[in-house]
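To illustrate the input format used throughout this study, we show a single complete record. The first block contains the structure-token representation of the backbone; no residue identities are included at this stage. The design step must infer an amino acid for every position from geometry alone.
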């Protein structure tokens, strides 16, 4: 289907096209698959008689690839979902007694104060700021 659309747009014979690297190429011209599919609504049936690429021609499948995420993870720079920072976002914290069965005392409302650094605010709802002891990231 992609080859037929590329041949139509290039006004070229389909057997002279080269399909590789997510693009169709012919005589120095190129169209990406996205450009070929743009604006089209497709319902393609599965063609069980279509030729399958021989394993000897595979360039990606079966090859080792590096983990692109590891360098940032090892340096502590990879953004995780809990690092989301939306303008105006507030955090809620569940403040628990220092041990089971204790639900009253001077610690109520003050148990996280030792974890904060100004200008973090008070335990409970607060706006996240860099350097707070209990925010997602410090940066």
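Output of the design step:
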């Amino acid at each position: 289907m992609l080859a037929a659309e590329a041949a139509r747009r290039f006004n070229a014979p389909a057997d002279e096209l080269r399909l590789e690297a997510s693009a169709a190429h012919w005589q120095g011209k190129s169209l990406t698959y996205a450009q070929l599919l743009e604006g089209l609504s497709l319902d393609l049936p599965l063609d069980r008689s279509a030729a399958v690429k021989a394993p000897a021609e595979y360039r990606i499948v079966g090859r080792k690839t590096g983990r692109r995420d590891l360098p940032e993870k090892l340096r502590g720079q990879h953004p995780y979902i809990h690092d989301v920072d939306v303008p105006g976002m507030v955090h809620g914290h569940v403040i628990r007694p220092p041990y089971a069965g204790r639900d009253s005392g001077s610690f109520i409302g003050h148990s996280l104060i030792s974890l904060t650094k100004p200008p973090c605010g008070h335990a409970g709802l607060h706006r996240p700021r860099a350097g707070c002891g209990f925010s997602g990231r410090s940066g």
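Structural context for interpreting the output: Residues 2-10 form the longest helix (9 residues). DSSP finds three helices and three strands in the chain.
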